[in-house]
User: What shape does this take?
Amino acid sequence: MKLNKLIRPFLIIAVLIVLAPQQMLAQKLKVSCVGNSITYGGGLSDPSTQSYPPQLQTLLGTTSWSVGNFGISSRTMLKNGDYPYWKEQIFTDAKAYLPNYVTIELGTNDSKPWNWNNRGNEFVSNYKEMIQIFQNLSSKPEVWIGLIPPGDKPTWGFSMVLIRDSVNARIKQVALQSGVALIDMFDALGGNKVPWYSNYFQADSIHPTQAGEAVIAQKIKEMLLMPKPVVTFANGKVIAPVGADYQWYLNGSPIAADKGGKLKEFDVKESGRYKVSIKLITSNQTRIVSKELAVVGLLNGSYYLTAKSNQKNIALSSGQVAVSDTIKLFASDGSDKQNWGIASLNNGYYTIQNVFSKKYLSLGEDKAGAAVLQISTAATDSQMWSMIRTTDGYYQIQNKKNGLYLTVLNNSQTDGALMVVDNQAGTDNQLFAARKSGVAESPFSGTAISIPGVVEAEDFNTGGEGIAFHSPSLVNNTGFYRPEDGLPIDTLIGNNGYYVKGLLKDDWMKYTVNVTDTSKLNYEFKLLSSDIAKFHLEVDGVNKTGILDLLSSNSNWVSVNVSLKLAIGTHTIRFYVDEGALSIDKILVQKDYGGKFQISSAVSGKNLSVYSTSTIAGYRVAQYPQSNNTSQQWVVSYVSDGYYKIENVKSGLVMGVPSSSVVQQSYTGTATQLWRFVEKSGGYMNIVNKSNGLFLSNVTNDIYFILTTGSDNTFFLTQIPSQQLPWNNQSAHIPGVIEAENYDLGGESVAYHELDGVYTNGLYRKGDAVDIEAKTGGGYDVYSIKPGEWLNYSLVADSTANYNLEFQVSATANSALQLLVDGAIKDTLNVNSTGGSQTWTKNSLILSVAKGSHVLQLKSLSGAVSFDKVTAIYGKQTAVTELNNAQMKVYPNPVSDFIYVNTGNLLNSNYVITDLAGKMVLSGQILNGSGKINIARLSKGTHILSIGNEQVKVIKNK
Assistant: This one.
C-alpha cells in the first residue's frame, strides 16, 4: 500500500496516539466475526462502518472489546464448495487474531443448488470441524454460530425453502451436536413474515441494509453480555435453569435422550463435566449454553482400588473364579484380577464386580474383622457398598448391611495382605484410591488434538491407568476435573483452566494428535518445578526429543522448547517424567519460524537493517537495498507463547519498541522486544509486537520502521543457512532430471541470487526469495529469471562423458542463460521468445563433464527466462563420421585387440572412448603424439575415440 506524502505525517501522529493508551489491544476481549458477504457488508456504501462487525464494536465500546471483521463475499462453509472459506487468507487471519469469542455466519452460499445438491451431506462435518479448529486455539475462544438470514433470489441460486428447511436445519444440528450457542438470525431478520425483506434487506433481498446489519450486531451483543446459565447439583441430580428444549452434555459430548439428556433435571451416574444447551424462547431457535459444572465422586466403570497405606491393589487371592475366594492385596500388575467394575445404584450404593471372575465383593461374615469374599450375585445388602470420597481424594468403602468399612488387615505392607471389614478407625488402611482402568484408549474429546495447536495436559487420552496414563502413587485429590482418573488435576490461578500437578519419576500421559503441517514445529512445554526435573516426549513409542532438563522454576511457570518435524496424520505422543517432580499446564505447538534471515518489506522490497550498520543500542531499524552485510541479517529465536526475539547478527542487539520508533536494544525479555509472526498469502508475514498487538510497518519513502494498526503491512523472510547444501540433502544425478525449483539450500548469495528479494507467489520453498509459480499441467517452475540472477544445483555425474542437456524454458522476449560448472563458464543457452511465460520450448546443448560431484549454475545474461527443468542424457554420437585429416590416424580399423594412434601435433593428449549412447568405456593418455591402446575389453561394435575436439569411429570386429 503506497501512502501520499501529505498523509504520512498524520499516520505517524495516529500511531503515537495508538501507542499511548495503557489499555492495549492485547488486553481486550477479542471477537472474530467469520462469514461471507453478509458479514463483510456486501452492497453497503461503507462496509467498514455499516456492516455488523463495526456496529458491534460501537455497541460494545472500545475500552474492553476489539471486534475483527473476517467476512469475505461468496464464500462457503463447504470445503468442496465453489468458493470455500477454508482456502482464504482471511480464515488464517481470523485464527491468528487469537479471539476470545468467534461468531460464524456461513451457509448462505452453500445453499446454491450446485453446492448443496452435490456436497450438502458434508456441511455438518465441515461446520463441526471449523468449530473445533477455533476451540483449539491457544486463546480457547467461545464459539457462537448463527442461522443464516432469510433470502430468496432464484436468479442467483437462492431459495427461501432450501435456506429454511435444509441449511438452517443442519446448522441447528451442528449447534446441538457441538454444544455451542445458536443465534436465530433467520427469525431476527423477518423469517417467514411476508414481506420479510421490507425493513432490513437491500433490493437484492439477500444482503441486509445498514439497519439489518444493526439487528445482527444487537443480537450478538445481547448474547455476548448475557449472564451464562448455571447448572446445579443436588440429591444426585443435575438441574438446569428455567428455559425450554434442553440438551445436556457430559465432557463435551451430547447425552442421549434415553439417558436423561433432554430433561430439565435427571439422576447422574458418573462424574464429569456437565453443561446444558437451552432455548431462550420456545418459538425462537436461539440457544445459550451454560457454564460447565464438575460433578465428582460418582463412579461408574472399571477401576483399580489401591490402598493408601501400601499402594497395593485389591485383588483375587487365588486368581480363580470360585465362589467365596478371599480378597487380598497385591502389587500392581495391570491384570483383570485386580480390576473392578463399579456400578452406581439408584439408592446411592455401588456394586463392585471383579472383571476377571465376574463375581462381586461381599461380606464373608456379618462381624468386624470378617474376611471379604467374592460371590456370584449382587442381590443383597452384603454386596452393596457406599463410596465416600474424602477431602484428599481417597475413598472410604462402607458395607450397606452392617456399616463396616473395607480395611487392610493389621495395616499390612506385604503382598497377600487380607482384606476384612471393620469399624471406622480413620486410618490410611481404610482409604483407597479409585483409578480408572480400561482397554479402549481414545482421545479424551473423541477427536484427535490438531497439531499445530494446544495439547492441554489434563486432556490426556481415556483408557485409564497403565493405558492412557501411569501414576501409581498419585491421587486426584482435588476432584475439579476428571476425578475418576488417578492423576492430580488442579486449577490455574484465576480458575483459567487446569493443570496436572506433582508428576513423579516414571509417571506419564498419552495424547492422540493429528498432525496437519509438515513444517518444523516448536513444542513449548509449560512446566513448573521446585527442583531439577527431567522429561522427554515420545512419538509412536520413539523418544523424539531426548532427555530435556527443567531447572527449579521457583513456583513460576517456565517454558522448555524443542523443535520436531512429524509426518502428516495421526500419532500418539507420550509425555514421560524421567527424574524429579514437575507440573505441566500444556504443550503449545506452533510453526517454528526460528533461524537466520534477511527480512524484506513487501512494500519496498528492501531489507530490515540497523541504521548505518551501527552496533550501538538505541539506533533505529531502517531499510536498505539487499546486500550480504550482516547488519541486514537477523537471528529469530523462540521465547514463549508464540513470541520470538529478533536479534541483529552484526550488533547482537534485539529489535524493540521503547516508544513509537523501532530500535535495537539489549535484550531484557520485555513484551516490547517480543514479536509474533502471522502468515499471510504469498508467503508473506505480519510481524506483531507483543506489548500492544500493533504491526511492524515501513512508511513509503521513509527509511525507518514504526508500528501501525494495519495488518496489510507484510514482510518476507529469506532464510540464510550456514552453508550451501543440495536440496533435500540429495544431489541430482546425471543422466537424470533436474527440476528448476529444487535449487540448492543456502539462501541468498549462496544458493541463488534474486535481485528484488521478494517472493511473489509463496507456493513452494516459502523461506526463499526465488520466484516460483505453479506450472500449467502440474508442478512448479522458476519464472522470469532476470539478468544478473542465478541458481545453483549440486549434481553428480555418473560417468565422464559428453551429456546432452535439454532445457525446458520459456520467454516473452529473446533471452540468454549462461551455463557454469564449478565456477567455470561452459556455454550459453539462447532462448527465443516463446510468446508467453507458460509457452514452453526445448533448447539443447552438449556438456562435457568428468565423473563425480559438481555445482551447475544457471545465470541470466539477458531478457527474462522461465525455467521448468533440464533433462540430461548421454550425448548421442551416431552422426560422427571417420575423419580424413592428418591430425589423428587410427589403424588397423576394424580391429580386434590393439589400435595404434597418431595424434599429429597433439603431443600429450588424454583420450576417451565412448559407446554410441555416449557412455565412457575407456580412458587414458597418448604421449609424444603416438601410442598403442588395448581395446580387448570393449564389446563388439562401433565406438567413438575422442582426443580434444577430434573424433573417429573405432570398429571392433570380435
